[in-house]
Amino acid sequence: MMLPLMRSELLKIKRKAFWFLAFLGPFGVVALQVVNYELRKDYLMKHYPGWDNYLDGMTMFTALALVLGIAVLTSFTASIENETNAWKQLLALPVSKWQVYLTKFTLLAGLFVFSTVLLVLFAWVYGIILDPGPVIPYGKLISQSFYPLIGALPVLALQLWIATVSKNQTIPIMTGVFGVILTFVAPLLPDWVIWKWPSLYNNWDQPLVNVLLGAGLGLLLYLVGMIDFSRRDVK
Amino acid sequence: MEYAVQTNNLTKRFNKEIAVSGVNLQIPKGEIYGFLGPNGAGKTTTIRMLLGLMKPSSGSIRILGKLLNKEKIAILRSVGSLVENPSYYPHLTAVENMEALRKILGVPKTRIDEVLALVRLTGAANKKVRGFSLGMKQRLGIAAALLNNPELLILDEPTNGLDPSGIIEIRNLIKRLPAECGMTILISSHLLSEIDQMATIVGIISKGELIFQDSIDVLRKHAQQQIVLRADRNREAQQLLLTKGIKAELQEESVLLPESSDQHVAQAVQELVQNGFKVYRAEEEKRSLEDIFLDMTAGGERAL
């Protein structure tokens, strides 16, 4: 049942700018880095040389783009069904509610994976143009792009939950904006704040901690959201 | 008798408020069941429970022989529905809207053309639904409900917002379906005239309780007829009729004959004419189904 549902969801996001935004996110992140280097290339290359610094410098932009993108796309996803209350039509089809929820989550996660792949690609291309060092650290290029995404999974699960169960999209948009602000000041926040995790900052300076926490709590919040969604009456 | 839908003491509470109370629907297969009630009587809540969109607070639902809480997905495979206002994806075309549902239902692609033709939307098939009129959206909703060729079709207020010709069209379509496709149809409305022209069986719900459930003919029997006569001197006319042994009641500008057989009416008119009255009007006054419906639903428990 999941595959037909996924095909149906893919059809529904047509003409809704989902793919465009999935492109815009990574493009914007690398574009910011381009501006960053074009403005003060000599300073950065002198004090922060090498690929590692180039890639680390991008993480904060990536985290912000992710949290912002999550807020926008989860809200879009919910509004597709909310606009004419299509939930009642969708859920009167021979599908279970948890499958519908899982499909929506998977679709969004898939879009962000697509974005992240583009991010790897764009960062690689500009890296080559910039040429910060002779050896390209491909492992770091990939991990530095995907770790923020995994760290952001709890935010994705939470925003999807709020967006799907809210009739009024003001609430998810408020939590979304709030989340972006928190991510913006990530280094100042205590480690337990989930909006800090995509930035890969923590007290131990171990990005993997954020990744593991993100995957764990992301799964948990997804399950809580799915169970709650399944138990609710469709209005 | 084989039932397409049977509910047993179906009840739904929202916090303390009881929306549906102990409803026992019995919808025989192949019939058009008219589900009547004023707005807010519990029609839509009942229908949402039948579709598994809401969980009953108590009671059970059996659809096409299966228990809803046990085999929901299997049941929904054979059910088509249109609940309240039609749902659609405005940024998609009519065909794409159908396709989004078809992928899940797994019916052949040709079925989309069939249902769109059935509701006469073939011409607008590739237009975005955003620009559709309300009637077209409603017809698209009905097309969606028919997509899986359901055994049970549930339509909640399907003629809402349609113009008269649209209403007639949908009505004819609905009337055709049981015979042609062997469908059972549950159709809700707050207008009795609507149901009167389609349904074979009627259920009336008021304040969450099912207060009537029988064939439409039984309901019609409650519509008594009487004859209204208007003569030049009504008061004297009534007295004359009474002296001749014909029951008559005086109304403001007419005389009412409770007995409406041809023989009675002929006799009354003859007496009046022979005694020099001028008879202007002799009309049948039906206590309309609408009146009965209003009586029933206004009083709640009163009625039958």
Provide key terms for this protein:
heterodimer; A: 235 residues; mainly alpha; elongated; B: 304 residues; alpha/beta; Rossmann fold; Alpha-Beta Plaits; 6-stranded mixed sheet; 5-stranded antiparallel sheet; disordered C terminus
Give the SSE map.
The complex is a heterodimer of chains A (235) and B (304).
Chain A: H1 2-12, H2 18-47, H3 50-82, H4 87-90, H5 97-130, H6 138-151, H7 153-165, H8 170-184, H9 207-231
Helix pairs in contact in A: 1-5, 2-3, 2-5, 3-5, 3-6, 3-7, 3-8, 5-6, 5-9, 6-9, 7-8, 7-9
Chain B: E1 3-14, E2 17-23, E3 26-28, E4 32-36, H1 43-50, E5 58-63, E6 66-67, H2 72-77, E7 79-82, H3 94-105, H4 110-118, H5 134-146, E8 152-156, H6 164-181, E9 184-189, H7 192-196, E10 201-206, E11 209-215, H8 216-221, E12 225-231, H9 234-243, E13 249-250, E14 255-257, H10 262-274, E15 279-286, H11 289-299
Parallel strand pairs in B: 4-9, 4-10, 7-8, 8-9
Antiparallel strand pairs in B: 1-2, 1-3, 1-5, 5-6, 10-11, 12-14, 12-15, 13-14
Helix pairs in contact in B: 4-5
Describe this structure in words.
The complex is a heterodimer of chains A (about 240) and B (about 300). With about 240 residues, chain A is mostly helical. Chain A has one domain. Helix content of chain A is about 75%, strand content about 0%. Chain A contains 9 helices and no strands. Chain A has helices at about 1-10, 20-45, 50-80, 85-90, 95-130, 140-150, 155-165, 170-185, 205-230. In chain A, helix 2 (about 20-45) packs parallel to helix 5 (about 95-130) and helix 3 (about 50-80) runs parallel beside helix 6. The longest helix of chain A is centred in the middle third of the chain and has 34 residues, at about 95-130. The radius of gyration of chain A is 19 Å and the shape is elongated. The mean pLDDT of chain A is about 95. In chain B, strand 5 and strand 6 (about 65) form a beta hairpin. In chain B, the strands form 3 sheets. Chain B has a 6-stranded mixed sheet with strand order 7-8-9-4-10-11, sandwiched between helices. In chain B, strands 1, 2, 3, 5 and 6 form a 5-stranded antiparallel sheet that branches. In chain B, strands 13-14-12-15 form a 4-stranded antiparallel sheet. With about 300 residues, chain B is an alpha/beta fold. Chain B has helices spanning about 45-50, 70-75, 95-105, 110-120, 135-145, 165-180, 190-195, 215-220, 235-245, 260-275, 290-300, and strands at about 5-15, 15-25, 25-30, 30-35, 60-65, 65, 80, 150-155, 185-190, 200-205, 210-215, 225-230, 250, 255, 280-285. In chain B, about 35% of the residues lie in helices and about 25% in strands. Chain B contains 11 helices and 15 strands. Chain B folds into 2 domains: about 5-215, P-loop containing nucleotide triphosphate hydrolases (Rossmann fold, 3-Layer(aba) Sandwich), CATH 3.40.50.300; about 225-285, 2-Layer Sandwich (Alpha-Beta Plaits), CATH 3.30.70. In chain B, about 40% of the residues are buried. In chain B, helix 4 packs across helix 5 (about 135-145). The longest helix of chain B has 18 residues, at about 165-180. Chains A and B meet through helix 1 and helix 4 of A and helix 2 and helix 3 of B.
